[in-house]
Amino acid sequence: MNKHTFHQVIIIAGLLLAFSFKTEAQKVINNQNQSWVSINTTAKFYKNFSIIADAHFRRNKFFGDRSFEFLRTAIQYNIDDKLSFAVGYGHMWMAAEDNTTNKEENRIFEQVQYITKIGNATLLQKVRNEQRWANPYKGTNIFSDRVRLLNSLTIPIFKNIYLPAIALADEVCVQFGKDIVYNTFDQNRWFVGIKQQVSKTLSFDLGYMEVLQQKAAINSYDNNHTFRWFFYYQPDFRKKKV
Questions:
Q1: Which one in 112, 125, 148, 153 has a CA-CA gap of 20 to 30 Å to 174?
Q2: Cα–Cα dist 14/63, whole Å
Q3: How are the residues of the chain apportioned to helix, strand and coil, as percentages rounded to the nearest 5?
Q4: pTM for this one?
């Protein structure tokens, strides 16, 4: 399979998964507003190795109530400027129904990422596999294996890289496990906005993201209309050759 065919397979699979939920009937959909802010760091530190360190903060009712806080770290090995592999760990603190206590989740993950050019646009494709242990209720420990497929496209409008570009993305998540009964389809996240390069090492995307998430109850969904502001910090701490 050549690279062009691989890209087509990944994109088509993502689209099929993203829209498969539309065949279901009698959905109960809870619409809500959210904000989601994050800082995502990928720091090169030795030869082909990088450290990933991310912090995410999501709020309900725009910036009103807590939704979750999430920290993630990983070691990444860069085959070249296009292809990389990573393994890591993440921990999430989710607001319980009383909005004062936490439900927590631990996860281990593995991912492969490929970046390519399509004309003057940049396509980032990522497949991530997560092993998650959650305790939604005191004394419980629910395991699930989740697979995430991300396609993210950045389309320049101007020749000056420090002027905004168009940012489009879609990520589909499916999960498996003995406790996963009705929601094998976990969620779909699509995003439209701008990508802004601030400096050589810092950029952000800003815009609207819709997160459609299927709940554990049959045909029950949260549809989150989300203000998204993600920062990306990519320093290089390797010693420069003299």
A1: 153
A2: 30
A3: 10, 65, 25
A4: 0.86
What the block records as the tokens of 106 is 């631990």
**Contacts of 14-17 spanning 24+ positions with Cβ under 8 A:** 14/149, 14/151, 14/170, 14/172, 15/170, 17/149, 17/172, 17/174, 17/185, 17/188
Architecture of domain 3-233 in CATH?
Beta Barrel (2.40)
Among 13, 4, 3, which Cα is nearest to 151's?
Answer: 13
Query: Do 206 and 193 meet the contact criterion of CB atoms below 8 Å apart?
Result: yes
Radius of gyration of the chain measured on its C-alpha atoms: 19
What span, in angstroms and rounded, lies between the C-alpha atoms of 13 and 125? 12
Pick out the chain residues at pLDDT < 70.
Answer: 1-26, 98-101, 136-139, 241-242
Closest CA to 45 of 15, 13, 77: 77
Bridging pattern class, strands 121-135 and 102-118: antiparallel
Coil, strand, or helix at residue 78?
A: strand
Q: What is the pLDDT of residues 11-57, one digit of tens each?
A: 666 666 655 545 445 688 999 999 999 999 999 999 999 999 999 99
User: Using CA atoms, how far apart are residues 202 and 39, in angstroms rounded to an integer?
Assistant: 10
The pLDDT score that the predictor gives to residue 13 is 63
Q: Take residue 182 and report the two structure tokens written for it.
A: 């009705």
Phi and psi torsions of 27, nearest 5°: -75, 145
**Contact between residue 168 and residue 155 where contact means Cβ atoms under 8 Å apart:** yes
Burial environment of residue 139 by CB neighbours within 10 A (0 to 12, 13 to 18, 19 or more): exposed
